[in-house]
Amino acid sequence: MQTKHNHSSHFSHLCKAFGIYQTNCYIIQTKKGEFIIDPGENSTQWILSQVKNPLAILITHGHFDHIFGLATLHQALPNLPIYAPQADAFMLESDCFDTGLTPCAPSYMVACDKNEQVLEIEGIKVSYLHFPGHTPGCSVIVIGGAMYSGDFIFKRSIGRYDFPYSSANDMRDSLQRFSELKLEDMEILPGHGESTRLCFEQNNAKLWSERI
Prior knowledge:
about 210 residues; alpha/beta; Metallo-beta-lactamase, Chain A; 7-stranded mixed sheet; 6-stranded mixed sheet; 6 helices; about 30% strand; Hydroxyacylglutathione hydrolase; hydrolase
């Protein structure tokens, strides 16, 4: 099912879940064009039907269910830049989980130093905040007054940290840093499931970090 939500007069987004893991793909609509976040399996046709002036593809992390449609989308839109966390680039460049993924390298690698990287894409501010643990490059993206959290933060839950390339120690540290973010409350749009709120999940993150 496709859903639409307005952040403000300047930003809104569409969301649709794809694949057996029901991975959320987001299209952020701005006055200048669209940003595509995490194109999953069989998402390309839907994306192409919804975008008029795509500006960039933004990847939260490199797990296959979030990038399975990336190669097909890149083939359809070869000039569209792909931004991804540098520490997860190897997951885009190879089928490291042996899932049948077609590799597709990012155009721009976003630095991963447990900090915020502020990008300006077509005059629009896009922030990557690096929170490793689920993957080495796992990040949340803040754009248009909303946070796209990938598989780091879910509604009343957090991402798993027992996969290959995951780290419980990194996840514990990331949750602590997340709980201390000095940001205005905003909607969180996760990689799976329903949306939630930053302030609510910051309180939960403290509890999760103590249990890892």
